[in-house]
Amino acid sequence: MLHRPHYPWNLKALLSGKPTVGWLMDLCEENYIYLTRLAPEVRHMQGHYLSHLEGATDLYLEVLEQTPYTSLLHLTYYFTHESGQAPDPDATIRVYHDSRQAEVLNLQQHILPLNQGVTRPTLEQKWRISLFLSKWLAYSVRQGHCFLPEQAVTGPGRKHLLPV
After folding, report:
1. Whole-model pTM above 0.85?
2. Preceding peptide of 89 cis, ω within 30°
3. What is the Cβ-side half-sphere exposure of residue 106, based on CA atoms within 13 angstroms?
4. Are 58 and 52 in contact (CB under 8 A)?
5. Nearest 5 degrees, angle CA 71-CA 76-CA 78?
6. How confident is the model over 3-13, as pLDDT tens digits?
7. Are 32 and 4 in contact (CB under 8 A)?
């Protein structure tokens, strides 16, 4: 069973209230827990990964960088649009293994106006983006998505992972 911190709020309060740095840190810790459920060996992974489940949207993970204390990840779905395959949502996430935190560095998605292209997000914007990631990761874990090192997809670059 996944450990979830108990927060004394509901979703409406989360979206309408003023977040604190403490709330954001708790949410980044929750995102770390979900990410390590999704990719238990993320610290030792390199390259591209695909999680395919019958009846679910394929989930794509790319490990962009590994350092002794952090991992830089790209997580996305690819959907068919008029112009071809497009990632949505499309997140770049820095995982801090020593402090057990996962921070959203960039999030592009077209449904909710979360970050609106802001280069220096406010605490509230970081909160909303992190909350979106938390809900997305929780959903992915509940569906059964998982990335394991032995399931790395080989081939040159991200184009290899694009659905046909």
Report:
1. no
2. yes
3. 11
4. yes
5. 150
6. 555 454 555 55
7. no
